[in-house]
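Justification of resources, computational component.

The compute hours requested in this renewal are based largely on the per-chain cost of generating structure records like the one below. Each record pairs the submitted sequence with a full structure-token output. That output is archived, and it is also reused by downstream analysis tasks.
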Amino acid sequence: MTAVAAAPRRATHAPAFRLSFAHLLKSEFVKILTLHSTWWSLGVTAALSIGISLLIAAASRDFGGSFPAANVIVSPTQFTMLVAGILGAIVITGEYSTGMIRSTLTAEPRRGAVLLAKAVVVALVMAATTVVIYAVAIAVTAPLLTSGFDWSDPAQSLVPLVLGVVSMAAFTLIGLGFGFLIRSGAGAIAATVGVLFVLPIVFSLFSFGGPSWQWLVDGAKYLPVNAAALLTAPGGDELATGGITLAAWALAPLVLGWVALRARDA
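The structure output for this chain reads:
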């Protein structure tokens, strides 16, 4: 009896699975929204913003009728910007500290896509949170204001609020860029705080230096916090300067972070 050898099976290989950008965005949303640090950061941002807005609204009766209502809502940005920047930094440095970045880059080898997805997600999360914060702050400060929002004049109402949302998203991207570039949580936070908080103080000190140092004082308006102030000033006439400056500050660390991400191993 002759045994018939079975014909060898041809090896079949499943096509390589490529993670779509939509799936990458979804995974980044899941990661950021399941972190306790994210909710703590957003909670602190909300508490600071609404609390400071209430204090300013209560004191605005003594400021006279010329104090715009929009300033009551956007003024806390000079404090909450730090929390936004730190959130952006820890979103990525946390992955480096735990080693999760290796799993992320294994699932999606296109490193530029990973950086872009994280940038989109953190910016959207911060922007959505800021919208909610502004809505609550407008509602709770309304009884304290002598003159409320004039919604018929967008330059005095809607435009500063929208640009305040954009500014908070930009601060988050600055922190994210430093996170990709430096990788260390402490280092990225230090760089973010330095750019957003320390540099304005340093530049302002030169106002005592006389006319020879005025160029440095004038250059302070090109720092992120002052650019945001130009953007969110009701009826401001330097929106282009503020917008270009803030966009440059948000993009520069991200571009440098992208270069570092491509050049170095995870």
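The radius of gyration is 24 Å. The chain has one domain: 21-263.
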